[in-house]
Design goal:
heterodimer; A: mainly alpha; Glutathione S-transferase Yfyf (Class Pi), Chain A, domain 2; 2 domains; three-stranded antiparallel beta sheet; two-stranded antiparallel sheet; 5 strands; globular; B: alpha+beta; Glutaredoxin; four-stranded mixed beta sheet; 4 strands; 8% strand; Glutathione-S-Trfase_C_sf (chain B); Glutathione_S-Trfase (chain B); transferase (chain B); glutathione transferase activity (chain B); cytoplasm (chain B)
Chain lengths: 270, 235
């Protein structure tokens, strides 16, 4: 397998509840977690290293204090002012899905990530398109409702809202099992692709709030195990250490530093 | 283009993503047959349609034995499978990435915010027989305004089209969403000359395919207008 050593910068940030670190290695690695809409939490140590999605190279990770991604400098890189963002020479790109597809195409990564066969490729695109307004939304919502909102607003989300959100999440998970996976080992076929990568990081989100989405879902659990094996257990575990430690991280945070989230929470959830 | 190959498209032209796919097919003359799925009558929830799409949504494309859902996947499949002008979904990685960047952003921004306005002003009142919820509508309009501002400043900027000098599938997805509130007679681009000029460029680029796709929406607008006038006692 020939790896192309390239030098580009990847800007990743911190999901609302933890620090995601990536190690560079010779194996294929998870892509940066999808775009986060939320400012970065303060008080976290500077980042060290990040790997690219699919190529063997080193890049720098920047961790911002809140508001830095609203500055002009970052605005030149990511016009939508969110993370992740990519800069490759003069070319700047936002949106994690677009970034992953660009990396796969430009750096000629192993075919299984984003197959050249147009029908298999379309299956990946089909999943990547569907997931935005489904599992991504529902998984994140659960994290916010169970963990972030009680911490930031000091109240519990009303039961009927929580039940509704759980129902939506379950519907998405069922669709993943019955429509996208069916009897296949991975979403598109026998090998892991970008669809599985994007899926796993979103499905893991609710675990950050103590909700085990794999319980009672043997098909999903078996798929998760295959994804973990395909990525490599060490790297998978390291990438998810932040989200899985979210509840502990939240306990240590000073709620007053999270004031800037309040208006957005009120608008989106109440 | 293979002789005799005709793709099947399951759609309802009231649906924004369906219109985007329909416009591409008719403009580029890809052989196709339309199968109507009447959302108003719940035809997307039948067990027969669910076999095609368990998500019970339109559009759905069937090409031989290959079934594909999700409009952005369908548009990209059509652009790369059939011999149509390259600008719709360019091959060059940086240009293609620009389209992928917009289509990803579209799902969480343009689509939900424009659709919500139509839902609150037309769909819910028509289906449930209730008056428009003004508080929710004002909030939806405010969210949409932010989206339009971002569309102008982040994507369109000084370019003729969202992703550069040429029209792409991104413009089709966006314009069809932004047309939807017209179902209640509301032109959300009324005070945005830059986006209005972009919309005109898109209309010119696709020609009569635009009005053909939007005929159903225009009919909804006319019926809505008549209902409002009747409600005001002017008939």
């Amino acid at each position: 397998m020939n790896w192309t050593k390239v030098d580009f910068q990847m800007f990743v940030g911190v999901d609302g509840i933890g620090l995601f670190k990536y190690r560079c290695s010779q194996s294929v690695q998870p892509a940066p977690i999808g775009c986060t809409d939320w400012p970065i939490l303060p008080g976290l140590p500077p980042g060290s290293l990040v790997s690219s999605c699919l190529v063997s190279c080193w890049s720098a990770m920047f961790v911002w204090v809140p508001g830095e991604h609203f500055g002009d400098e970052f605005g030149k890189i990511s016009k939508i002012r969110k993370v992740p963002a990519l800069r490759d020479g003069d070319f700047c790109l936002a949106e994690s899905v677009a970034i992953m597809l660009y990396l796969a195409e430009k750096f000629q990564t192993p075919d299984r990530w984003f197959p050249a066969d147009l029908r298999l490729r379309s299956r990946v695109n089909e999943y990547l398109s569907w997931q935005h307004s489904a599992i991504r939304m529902h998984g994140s919502k659960m994290l916010w409702m169970r963990l972030m909102i009680p911490k930031i607003m000091g109240i519990d989300v009303p039961k009927e809202k929580m039940d509704g959100a759980l129902e939506d999440l379950n519907a998405s998970l069922t669709l993943i099992e019955e429509n996208f996976l069916q009897d296949r080992p991975f979403i598109v076929g026998d090998q892991m692709s970008l669809a599985d990568l994007v899926a796993i990081v979103e499905i893991m989100q609710p675990l950050g709030a103590g909700l085990d989405v794999f319980e009672g879902r043997p098909k999903l659990s078996a798929w998760r195990d295959r994804v973990q094996a395909s990525i490599g257990k060490d790297l998978f575990d390291e990438a998810h250490r932040g989200i899985l430690g979210a509840q502990d991280s939240m306990k240590q945070l000073d709620p007053s530093k999270l004031e800037l989230f309040k208006p957005k929470i009120l608008r989106l959830f109440f | 283009m293979a002789t005799g190959r005709e793709v099947q498209l399951y759609l309802d032209l009231l649906s924004q993503p369906c219109r985007a796919v329909h416009i591409l097919l008719t403009r580029t003359k890809i052989p196709h047959r339309v199968h109507s799925v009447a959302l108003r009558k719940g035809e997307h929830r039948t067990s027969e349609f669910s076999k095609l799409n368990p998500m019970q949504k339109v559009p759905v494309l069937v090409d031989g034995g290959f079934i594909l859902r999700e409009s952005d996947a369908i548009l990209k499949y059509l652009a790369t499978t059939f011999d149509i002008p390259e600008h719709w979904y360019p091959w060059q990685p940086e240009r293609r990435a620009r389209v992928d960047e917009y289509t990803a952003w579209h799902h969480s921004n343009t689509r939900p915010h424009a659709a919500k306005v139509f839902m609150l002003e037309v769909l819910l009142p028509a289906q449930l027989g209730v008056p428009v919820d003004r508080r929710r509508l004002d909030r939806a309009l405010s969210d949409l305004d932010v989206t339009l501002e971002r569309l102008e400043s982040m994507f369109l900027r000084r370019q003729p089209f969202l992703c550069g000098d040429d029209i792409t599938v991104a413009d089709l997805l966006a314009v069809c969403e932004l047309m939807q509130p017209l179902g209640s007679g509301r032109d959300i681009l009324k005070d945005r000359p830059q986006l209005r000029r972009w919309r005109s460029r898109v209309q010119s680029a696709v020609g009569e395919s635009f009005d053909d796709a939007h005929a159903v929406l225009f009919a909804v607008r006319d019926r809505h207008r008549a209902r409002v006038i009747k409600g005001q006692g002017q008939i």
